[in-house]
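Session log. Operator J.P. requested a structure for one protein chain; no other inputs attached. Running the standard single-chain path with token output.
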Amino acid sequence: MKYAVGIDVGGTNTRVALIDETYKIIERKQFPTNGNDPEKTLDNIKSVIDGFGCRIAGIGISCPGPLDLIHGIVLTPPNLPGWHYFELTKCLGEKTGVSVYLENDANLACLAEAVIGAGKEKDYVQFLTISTGVGAGLCVNQKIFRGAKGFAQEVANSILWKNGPSQGDLKKGSIESIASGTAITKRANEAGLIAKHAGEVYQKAQKGSQQAAEIMEDAYEYLSSFLGILYGILDPDIFVLGGSVALKIPGFIEEIEKRVKDKVYDALKDNIHVVPAVLGEDCGLIGAACLVFQSIESI
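Structure written below.
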């Protein structure tokens, strides 16, 4: 049996899992991420891996972006200020003595869903996570599509609404500034509604709040328009939606699918399939293991 280590580095916590070639998680550990000193986090990762006590084929790792995937470098993630321009794959490889493969979280989630999840047995799987932000990944024949420079599917800053809402460093009218959980909540609070998360905005809309209903309508409308655009460009077999907004707001995915069907050519309506992700919070870890096993097979 071959084993891989999947790692998910977050702004708050880092998760490390031992995963076998059937994609079963054998063991996992979690500890706080040191946002100012990556070396300390890597030392903790090595300690966990040593504790697994078995030979591993490689390490797959997800880290907040932006990332230089070609050279394995963390660029400028805002929630990891001490990691900027850190040569992650090189440093972790030197500490552990095994090959390290870096990838962004949405790509790894897409890969996991394409290999063993909702997109299993589909050739073209388009994944989107609608959560704190909006991320995406595309897998073709169970392989991640990265583009020329490794930045394919960096969709958060896709502009759909002229002079629309903005968020952080994103441009006005970007899809993440409209449809992410953070954006929905921010717009609600700016409108005088008190909401801790997007689910509460949805609930207020259901109870008759016109302002909440308009904010949710914008999220549905622009996100479905975006999926319609992606369909026209990519022609995927399936759209897999993950993230707390997509999975926890009742009827969200069904509403998006219905609207996407109204935005494509009538002859293509039956080709639109929008489904929920099925692997939950483990999709990034499993995707990281998929990346390792695929990489060693190609050597």
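Operator note: DSSP finds ten helices and 13 strands in the chain.
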